[in-house]
Specification:
Blueprint: H1 3-22, E1 33-38, H2 44-53, E2 61-66, H3 70-78, E3 84-88, H4 89-97, E4 102-110, E5 113-118, E6 132-135, H5 141-152, E7 161-164, H6 169-175, E8 181-185, H7 188-195, E9 199-204, H8 205-210, E10 220-227, H9 228-233, H10 235-254, H11 256-267, H12 271-278, H13 288-305
Parallel strand pairs: 1-2, 1-3, 6-7, 6-8
Antiparallel strand pairs: 3-10, 4-10, 5-8, 5-9
Length: about 325
Amino acid sequence: MGKIKLYKFVIILSCLLISSLFLGNFVNAAPQKIVIQTPPVPAALPLLRMESLGELDNFIDLDVKVSSDHQRAISLISKNEIDFMITGANVGAKIYNKGIDVKLVNVNTWAIDYLLTNGFKAEQWSDLEGKTLSLPLKGGPLDFLARYLLKANQVDPEEVKLIYRPLPNGAKYFMTGEVDSIILPEPLVSKTLTQNSNSYLSFDIQKEWAKLNQGDERVPFVGLFVGENFMKEYPGLTDIIAGKFIEGVNYYNNNPKEAVSDASKYFNIPKPIMEQAWNRVNLNIYPESESKELINNYFNHILDIYPEMIGGNLPDEEFYY
């Protein structure tokens, strides 16, 4: 099934399910509230729009909580205290392999990361030898990408001074000149470039990835997950959230000014910075078979360097919604 047909099918299905809800088919079985936790990232926008439009208000309370605390989200979904969460694709795979019952509804954000350098422009990865490189978390996705790309470009990661500082503190240290380079996601990239005239955008991580992966720039970074208990008890509502999420993604891709305006409002980011950032954001949902292939490729590369990032092995088919 093609991408457009798939979207139409999901949206039509969602509309039919919503109609059924309004007719009372599921009202008595529906929970009083659906709780979703998301960090302040582009993938939050479709959820926040869903909440603000109030399309489900006649029969259910949709509560979208914005928090950067991924560990708390994991704890809450494991105890069925939240129903959905936005987190890293690898994080979802890891907790699934560790026995927490979650399903991947979709991957929606495809790596929005860039290498910035301080006072010089790196033309090749070997230019980082002997210099400091700031990363947010040892054993995290950006640490994996840095090591993967360094090795692929014949640079021993041990020849680069890797420093680990959580975001956005790492960006602050970079802007003060305390580190030579940093890998950041958007919108921190645009914010840093705007506030530090001494910084250079040296590498688009997506393009660097594509050089090693048949020219495909998509790195499956962020996903929407549902708790398995909620999915089993309320399959119709799960379908509605999944379908409305796709509608929101399509809306923002077709209305970039609204995306910038809403991101600026919800995430407290100046519009000029968000305008630059949005041009480098890949918020999209691709057909299931295509996404699975990209996810498996990404996870297999992780297994070579940091297997614990996904819990030691590829998740089985039950991982996918």
